[in-house]
Design brief:
Elements (H helix, E strand, L loop, with lengths): L3 H21 L4 E6 L7 H8 L2 H4 L3 E6 L3 H10 L4 E4 L1 H9 L4 E8 L5 E4 L12 E5 L5 H12 L8 E5 L3 H9 L5 E4 L3 H7 L3 E5 L10 E6 H6 L1 H20 L1 H12 L4 H11 L11 H10 L19 H8 L2 H5 L3
Parallel strand pairs: 1-2, 1-3, 6-7, 6-8
Antiparallel strand pairs: 3-10, 4-10, 5-8, 5-9
Helix pairs in contact: 2-10, 2-11, 5-13, 11-12
Amino acid sequence: MNYFKPVLLGLIIGLLCDLQYSFTEEKPVAKIAYPSIGGNSTILYVGAEAGIFQRNGLDVKLIYIPGGSRLVQALISGDIDFGFTSPSVAVGASLAGADLRILAVSTTTMVYWLFVTKEVRDLGDLRGKLIGITRYGSGIDVATQAVFRKLGFELNKDYKLIQVGGQREAILAMEKGVIQGALLNPPASTIARSLGFNMLVDGGDLGIDYAMASLISLKSKISRDEALVRKVVKSYAEAIAFAKKNPEPAIAAIGKYTGVKDRRVLKETYEAFVPRFAKIPLVTERIVKAALFEHQQRFPKAASSDARVFMETKYIEELESEGFFKLLYRD
């Protein structure tokens, strides 16, 4: 009988060690970058603040990289694992040689308003003027060109673009007279309105096919670490549902990451974006084809490119087939 006591003791110690290891085992790190500070990134803010990433076994690092083009560079260099930017940025970069895939799309309508300086009273006053964007190749760059093309303006003939940084920098540039207009959305658009700038055009009224927000990654990263991708995509979908169902925590998260304290501005930011988030953030061929159309002038091959090459839909489709979204929104 005494012979079994040390054996039993050894087994107990071994089990305790295993349990200790399981509790202290590090979660996989996922570095996710976003190119603008505002309501468009609410999904990421909520995912972090509500503990959604953590509950799905992730240690997520949110990184702000101004401009979609710089974000793509960080993806290619391996500095980040995922990007949160417009599908158009991903498609443009892929046409240029980057092997990116769009995993999910949350915002499928344009949420931008064209704000102009006080001396600009109508579209005619904008001819020959400077319009601010974040970075060349960014989502705002593509959206700005799409808006002005719809309005009948020709780039470098009727107007010019200049890089100014983020949306808040665009407001400062308008205050100083460096630029005469810029596409903005909340909270920047609310701030611009309070400063007396004029909202000249609502981009959402122009009937432009433009998806604003998507989750992207390198094809090689997706193939190499599918378990991580599944966790990130699932968290992304859960964060959308949480934001829709829990306005107050979502508004608090927006306030924390944007630095905005004005309750009215934060509420307007929430209302401009969250109701527009897709419950099932599936990327479709229509979304990608619209992005390809925007790049045809720069990349003629875009006209004949297969939209499916730029998409990876299986992770959202898996969740849908499992009944995940029905469960998520059953209330």
